[in-house]
Design goal:
It is a single chain. This protein is α+β, with helices and mostly antiparallel strands. It is built from 13 helices and 17 strands. 46% of the residues lie in helices and 20% in strands. Helix 8 packs antiparallel against helix 9 (328-357) and helix 11 packs antiparallel against helix 12 (435-465).
Length: 599
């Protein structure tokens, strides 16, 4: 189950480039602008608050040399901005600004743009703008995040199952609790160590750099991971104390009553809520609109998920073949608990979907929306399996207990007083399984199916939390439109193969990314992330829904980048953009991407 879910996670996680919640709404100077005199500073504005790194800005001159800049900071104290001062002796030519910040939901986001002083450079030297993402670091980070979700769900859900469903012998649940605790500890440490290379886009070998690790420990994501680590010892003590009380409660009624004191229950709930907050405060709920409501909803959503999915694992452990079957009353209590958890999941899930999407078009026109649809389908399958389990539970509760028939007594066999002993009776046949045993086997299979689907749902959820919500694009449009009537640009990055295993990328900007006339700018990057010169670059746009196109963008090589002054896109909708890159005199590659053109 775990390996299958990890496979889904890696497939979904590798489907596109790394992305984050924060979106760049404007730059000053603007991308591609030509200035009469050198600017005093560079300012970026984002759709939400961002965190800055020591190397958040790298400004490169026309020869590819790094320009000495001042310390980066927020403009006028606004957390959604990033600013760096420039020296006053910038010469004539085209400058490249490579930037990298950390979104409020803890995911890094990066990019680059150019501006020119005096006039654009005739020829631009290859420029290393820095790594976008290290594949190995990103994969390890995703696996650690998924394992932390899985372990938290198992830990909280199993403990809640023991407290709410009250199995007579909770000893079999000790092993999953211990495994979940250690897995959560290991995955949290891994996330803490991988945080610095994940933000910097470097390989795992830089994870133990003392300076980078020290910076991580004082950042908001690092502090939240430390809080999660600090909560694990009290959780272990609480579970150990609860286990000791449970063992005593088997022989002492007073201890059984003491096990259910309101104080013990309040401590358990507080620890679970604190653990859930370390996720909610580091992801989409911590940024955007209605943060207090969103944080509350996220905590309830996480706890309800844990109670349901972790409870499924606990019930499956008790139903495992070879163990005494749990009483029907325990199964019935979990059925009622799971129903309440599902109700909370539906309510909070609807709210979070509304908050993240922003419009019906984003449901199919954004990666976030498509992942959300996949999750909804999987949850529907999960609810179907839960309904089957509920029917098995009802049948188990209504099954009559196996009791001797009234008035029937065992038959007595006369024994001789002496003489040879009686003949040995034939070996007894194994008793046929009664109806309750068959019902428990059916319930076990149904719960196993629920658990498998639940693991896949958790994998999709992990990817969803690292995907920018659909509302972000619309907020970007509104924010940019309110600023001097300037509309935002649509930026698309398309990877292509150069030969063998080498891959380059084309960054294509449509300004303003709406119907009507658009300016087009395209920058080609080589495998090492530096600017690359290619013999030819062509762009074609089609609108399949209206059978329109292809419309060709007449790109001109401007020395370092390609541009077209005007491209007219007459209708809104999801267009297909085809980029053809001629990498040599005889070889060319073509790649397609879908982009949304707004009205």
């Amino acid at each position: 189950m775990l390996l299958g879910a990890l496979l889904v996670l890696l497939l979904l996680g590798g489907a596109g480039p790394a992305s984050a919640h924060a979106a760049l709404t404007s730059t000053d100077p603007g991308d591609g602008t030509v200035l009469r005199r050198a600017p005093a500073r560079v300012t970026l504005t984002f759709s939400e608050s961002v965190g800055l790194r020591d190397d958040s800005f790298r400004v490169l001159d026309p020869d590819g040399h790094r320009v000495r800049t001042g310390e980066s900071g927020h403009a006028d104290g606004r957390s959604e901005t990033a600013r760096v001062t420039l020296p006053g002796e910038l010469g004539e030519g085209t400058y490249t600004v490579a930037w990298r910040v950390v979104s409020a939901d803890s995911h890094p986001v990066s990019g680059a743009f150019t501006f020119s002083v005096g006039k654009p450079s005739q020829a631009t030297a290859p420029v290393d703008t820095g790594p976008a993402e290290d594949p190995l670091t990103a994969a390890l980070h995703k696996i650690a995040r998924y394992l932390s979700y899985l372990a938290a769900a198992l830990l909280v859900g199993t403990a809640a199952f023991a407290a709410l469903c009250r199995p007579p012998d909770p000893a079999p649940l000790r092993r999953p609790l211990v495994a979940a605790w250690w897995t959560l500890l290991a995955s949290t440490v891994a996330l803490l160590v991988l945080r610095a290379p994940y933000e910097a886009g470097t390989g795992p070998s830089t994870a133990l750099d003392p300076t980078a690790l020290g910076d991580t420990l004082v950042s908001r994501p690092g502090v939240l991971l430390l809080v999660r680590l600090a909560l694990l010892p009290p959780i272990a003590l609480y579970l150990a104390r609860t286990a000791r009380t449970t063992r005593t409660a088997r022989t002492t009624r007073a201890a059984r009553l003491g096990r259910r004191t309101p104080l013990a229950a309040a401590v358990g709930v507080a620890l679970a809520v604190g653990l859930a907050l370390t996720w909610a405060a580091a992801e989409h709920a911590s940024a955007g609109a209605q943060v207090p409501v969103a944080m509350t909803s996220a905590v309830l959503h996480l706890l309800a998920t844990a109670v349901w999915l972790g409870g499924l694992a606990a019930l499956l452990t008790l139903l495992r073949a070879g163990r005494p079957a749990p009483p029907a009353a325990v199964v019935a209590r979990f059925s009622r608990t799971a129903f309440a958890a599902v109700t909370v999941l539906v309510v909070t899930g609807v709210y979070q979907s509304w908050r993240g999407l922003g419009s019906w078009q984003a449901l199919t026109g954004s990666t976030y929306g498509r992942l959300l649809l996949a999750k909804v389908v999987l949850v529907a399958v999960l609810l179907g399996a839960a309904a089957v389990s509920r029917r098995w539970t009802s049948a188990l509760l209504s099954a009559p207990a196996a009791v001797p028939a009234p008035g029937r007594v065992p038959e007595r066999v006369p024994q001789p007083a002496g003489g040879p002993p009686p003949e040995e009776p034939p070996p007894a046949r194994p008793p046929a399984p009664d109806g309750a045993s068959a019902l428990r086997r059916g319930l076990r299979r149904s719960v196993l199916a629920e658990a498998v689907v639940a693991a896949v749902v958790l994998a999709v959820t992990t990817v969803l939390t690292a995907t920018p919500p659909g509302r972000t694009a619309e907020e970007t449009v509104r924010a940019a439109g309110a600023a001097d009537g300037v509309r935002p640009a649509s930026v698309t990055t398309i990877p292509f193969e150069i030969g063998g295993t080498a891959r380059g990328t084309v960054q294509i900007t449509l300004d303003p990314g709406r119907t009507g006339d658009n300016a087009v700018q395209a920058v080609v990057f080589g495998p090492d992330g530096s600017l690359a010169a290619v013999p030819e670059l062509r762009l074609a746009f089609t609108l399949p829904d209206k059978d329109l196109g292809p419309l060709q963008a007449e790109l001109v090589d401007r020395g370092g980048y390609w541009s077209a002054n005007t491209l007219t896109l007459p209708l809104p909708g999801v267009w297909t953009m085809k980029a053809t890159v001629r990498v040599s005199e005889v070889d060319q590659v073509s790649e397609e991407r879908r982009i949304r053109i707004l009205p």
